[in-house]
């Protein structure tokens, strides 16, 4: 096998230099993570609903440095193949894509690659569990999520942004869908992973939860974890998701308050 | 492109209004809609800008990477454009639906910037024939409400103004090859001179008159449009006629003159605004989509 020399881009080079220089560990002895958070602390949340006037529902969400934009069109008539029409419920169509400038290394294709297709299917599965599709038979609901800046926890930020967008579109849901990515380091579960932690050899688990009933809409993990730790990790993920749901609820209530205040004449 | 259905009565109304220099939203024929520009919205990039023109929203990110110069011009860097028409704008752009429009937009951008003066490509050279800076300009279309070219060109100008390219030091390593070192200081960077970057003006022919910055309704009433890219001196770098209808040479000449006038008038306030935003420095509150 020949020696393949890969040209590393500036982003990757800089990041490696940074890690080596600082001798960083994911969880310090005092219990602080790379960005100064504690193990169960979530990143800074900033959200806004109704960002675009043309779409039926839209939301913008920032969790730490990860920024996502979600747009909902629907319910409307099923576009494309008529074979997709379901006579008893609405069809949910999701597309996940990343802006080409969202990652440290420039992404050539915004969508269409395997990871994006997989994410789109996960989003579809998540929202089919939450949206009351039986109220809109023979119609289609489109959910499009775009990652503008990627710093870890892409799936969770997408789900949270899409929840706000679906609420903004006025489509009824059973409950908020909250998602969080958790990881396991040094016998401690870490909530809401950032990019450095995700890549640092941490077993990460993504969970989407319907908080009121404690129902799990999606659970995904593709890393090695000892069976004994699994329950603790899922518990930590559910607690983090419940925290996220409180924040989302606050955002929605504030948006409604702003919308219902009559404009000063 | 997102389209609207316009009835015959509405078309007549729009046509008559434009004939009298009064458009549906009260603008004159050569007025732009409310434009909002903000730079440095995405921190992963070397330069970024967000432009909202009426309901059209465009986000541009510029990334600078080290690459090999083109064989014909070994002492110049180059610029690559990519336009992503995202499904956010309209469900028709889902999957590969937006590729056609995206390719058309990026091809036009290549033509507009295909001259020696718009971007100083020689300043992007690191070592002739071996290394140069490649600027990847990525345009993300978030909402379509007509007049994409103008919004995109303003956003590109703002993003290039905001671009910070790190300084490089070339040193010779043991085997006699060249080693490139990036400066560690994030503030030690080179800025681009965007004085000569052109702005695109789209003029739509509606009836016997032409309008600048047409909305989707006005576009539905027009037969053809002319796209002109104008620099701050009034020099034209690219002209294109789009649309299914035909234009007579008289109107093309008239539209070109109007385009030059409008385009030239666009540059000065834009540069002033960008410099004003820059002067706010760290005290500036970054709004992005949250405001």
UniProtKB/TrEMBL annotation, chain A:
GO terms for cellular component: cytoplasmic exosome (RNase complex); nuclear exosome (RNase complex); nucleolus; nucleoplasm. GO terms for biological process: nuclear mRNA surveillance; poly(A)-dependent snoRNA 3'-end processing; rRNA catabolic process; rRNA processing; U4 snRNA 3'-end processing. Its main location: cytoplasm. Component of the RNA exosome core complex (Exo-9), composed of EXOSC1, EXOSC2, EXOSC3, EXOSC4, EXOSC5, EXOSC6, EXOSC7, EXOSC8 and EXOSC9; within the complex interacts with EXOSC2, EXOSC7 and EXOSC9. The catalytically inactive RNA exosome core complex (Exo-9) associates with the catalytic subunit EXOSC10/RRP6. Exo-9 may associate with DIS3 to form the nucleolar exosome complex, or DIS3L to form the cytoplasmic exosome complex. Belongs to the RNase PH family. Keywords: Acetylation, Cytoplasm, Exosome, Nucleus, RNA-binding, rRNA processing. It is found in: Cytoplasm; Nucleus, Nucleolus; Nucleus, Nucleoplasm. The gene is exosc4. This is Exosome complex component RRP41. Residues 41-172, 175-239 form the Exoribonuclease phosphorolytic domain. The lineage of its organism: Eukaryota, Metazoa, Chordata, Craniata, Vertebrata. SUPFAM superfamilies: Ribonuclease PH domain 2-like, Ribosomal protein S5 domain 2-like. Pfam families: RNase_PH, RNase_PH_C. GO terms for molecular function: RNA binding.
TrEMBL record, chain B:
Keywords: Acetylation, Cytoplasm, Exosome, Nucleus, RNA-binding, rRNA processing. Residues 32-166, 196-261 form the Exoribonuclease phosphorolytic domain. Gene3D superfamilies: GHMP Kinase, N-terminal domain. One of its GO terms (cellular component) is nuclear exosome (RNase complex). It holds the Pfam family RNase_PH_C. Its main location: cytoplasm. The keyword Nucleus applies. CDD domains: RNase_PH_RRP42 (cd11367). It is found in: Cytoplasm; Nucleus, Nucleolus. One of its GO terms (molecular function) is mRNA 3'-UTR AU-rich region binding. GO terms for biological process: exonucleolytic trimming to generate mature 3'-end of 5.8S rRNA from tricistronic rRNA transcript (SSU-rRNA, 5.8S rRNA, LSU-rRNA); nuclear mRNA surveillance; nuclear polyadenylation-dependent rRNA catabolic process; rRNA catabolic process; TRAMP-dependent tRNA surveillance pathway; U1 snRNA 3'-end processing; U4 snRNA 3'-end processing; U5 snRNA 3'-end processing. Belongs to the RNase PH family. Component of the RNA exosome core complex (Exo-9), composed of EXOSC1, EXOSC2, EXOSC3, EXOSC4, EXOSC5, EXOSC6, EXOSC7, EXOSC8 and EXOSC9; within the complex interacts with EXOSC2 and EXOSC4. The catalytically inactive RNA exosome core complex (Exo-9) associates with the catalytic subunit EXOSC10/RRP6. Exo-9 may associate with DIS3 to form the nucleolar exosome complex, or DIS3L to form the cytoplasmic exosome complex. Exo-9 is formed by a hexameric base ring consisting of the heterodimers EXOSC4-EXOSC9, EXOSC5-EXOSC8 and EXOSC6-EXOSC7, and a cap ring consisting of EXOSC1, EXOSC2 and EXOSC3. This is Exosome component 7.
